[in-house]
Amino acid sequence: MCLTTSDDAPDAVALYRKILAAQPEQRVTIVVVGWRTNMADLFDSKPDQYSQLTGRQMVEAKIKELVSMGGRRPNSRKDEGEYNFRMDGAAAPKVIRDWPGKITFTGLGIDVMTGARLVAEGLEDNPAPAFYRNFFKGHKVSERSSWDLIAVLYAVRGLADYFTAVSEGKCVSKEDGSNQWIPGPPSNHAYLVYKMPRTELAAVIEDLLLTLPSCE
């Protein structure tokens, strides 16, 4: 599908339902690096041409894990919301409270700086270094925090030697975008903490960014 404008994009919830309907049970990992709006709407969706399952039933049946990049780990400062939780104030608390499956909150990356090697060594026609070059030029910086990249790294490779997970408790979010980790017995919530030094983790991410796509 070739999109010339955002108006050409399909409805997000309908697309999620179409994709999920074709997947085996408990095999899908979804990474959310922005607002939680689409997840809240998917959860509330009704049966359609793709599946007779409700949104909640589809989430329970198809999704193994939701990787949520947002919030501040383990707690936000008093009355300080985080952008991805705050911008759709109703969605994040709903998803965090009602999601029946596993949610892993990343929220890491502000101190894992990447992009410098990619800009220096990446091919000119590669869109990834091109983005970084434009970002660095516009913001007068030479590196960028790796919030989204860490969420994707975990979603694909799991904890590996990069992270450990804290699952004793649960996350509670408010509509102002703030969040708190409430200690307690293990739940379907977990958040990541670093296991690998930040500089080494940055090198892992840069190596992946510089890997050319396979032709196979």
Overall, the morphology is globular
> What's the main sheet like?
5 strands, mixed
From the helix content, strand content and strand pairing, which structural class follows?
Answer: alpha/beta
Helix content bin? 25-40%
Instruction: Indicate the CATH topology.
Output: Inosine-uridine Nucleoside N-ribohydrolase, Chain A
Q: What is Rg?
A: 18 Å
The secondary-structure element order is HEHHEHHEEHHEHEEH
Architecture blueprint of SSEs:
Layout: H1 12-21, E1 28-32, H2 37-44, H3 55-62, E2 63-68, H4 83-86, H5 91-98, E3 102-105, E4 113-114, H6 116-121, H7 127-139, E5 144-145, H8 147-157, E6 163-173, E7 179-194, H9 198-210
Parallel strand pairs: 1-2, 2-3, 3-7
Antiparallel strand pairs: 4-5, 6-7
Helix pairs in contact: 1-2, 2-3, 2-5
Overview of the molecule:
This protein is an alpha/beta fold. The protein has one domain (10-113, 146-196): Inosine-uridine Nucleoside N-ribohydrolase, Chain A (Alpha-Beta Complex), CATH 3.90.245. It contains 9 helices and 7 strands. It has helices at residues 12-21, 37-44, 55-62, 83-86, 91-98, 116-121, 127-139, 147-157, 198-210, and strands spanning 28-32, 63-68, 102-105, 113-114, 144-145, 163-173, 179-194. The strands form 2 sheets. The protein has a 5-stranded mixed sheet. A two-stranded antiparallel sheet has the order 4-5. Strand 6 and strand 7 form a beta hairpin. The longest helix is centred in the middle third of the chain and has 13 residues, at 127-139. It is globular. The chain starts with 11 loop residues before the first helix and ends in a 6-residue tail after the last helix. The model has no long low-confidence stretch (mean pLDDT 93).
